[in-house]
Amino acid sequence: MKPIKNYLSLVKFSHTIFAMPFALIGFFLAIPQASLSGRYVQDMPGTMAGLLAPTMLQKLVLVLVCMVTARNAAMAFNRYLDRHFDALNPRTAIREIPAGILSAESALRFVIGNSIVFVIATWFINPLCFYLSFVALFVVLFYSYTKRFTALCHLVLGVGLSLAPIGAYLAVTGSFALLPLLFSFAVIFWVSGFDIIYALQDADFDKAHQLNSIPAALGKANALRVSRILHIGSAACVTVAGFYGGFHWLYFVGYGVFVGMLIYQQSLVKPNDLSKVNLAFMTANGIASVVFAIFVISALFLQYGW
To answer: Rg of the Cα trace of the chain?
Structure first.
């Protein structure tokens, strides 16, 4: 079990809790639309389409597999690519590769293996997801290079995680729609905002080693202001999504928790006091995403009488 724990630690598997709930929102959001458009082909057992198409439960499993493997590949690649910088940074020198717990080669094999599983899983979902899987992989892997040339790296990370709700929606419906895109934009602003907060810890190190980030470029106080603006954008997106989607009132209970956690997260961190960054990053974000997803999915169940 120890090697497994090492790989789970390498990719910070517990952080999957951030984007996974939004993938579930996208999935359940798509079911009514799929029903209306007649995409329940598994209900046609006498046809080839019915024999080959995955059921909704199978699609849900495949979506979760895609979510986990894409994130594993992205995180492990980031650790592989940044291993030399991590070894120089006292905060990150204890990570698995610089500490010698895992070799760089084994981490790279882990990236390749997860990428292959991700692409195979999309092939079993539908053709559109399969074709877009290569674009998605490029985005989530390319993020690891961005800190080397742009302070907007936080937004690229946000784009990577924002693929969760729209990707899950595409897995069910095979088509794009505005509502899941609103949730994707909410994820972009939310993730970018909290990644800036997390990057405050390495502002001085990044400047000293010519690495780019908002805190390194603008200073900690201004970086926090940018983070707040992004979180306001995230709150605006979930507000618009709530009214545009005509959700049951339960949605707005979850909305209140989500926005409340954004405010709480911002209140925890000061430019001259970063002692609560981990509380803001892990606890506040975990509660925000999980509780919000529970209420949104519950609202959908009540709204459509499932």
So the answer is: 20
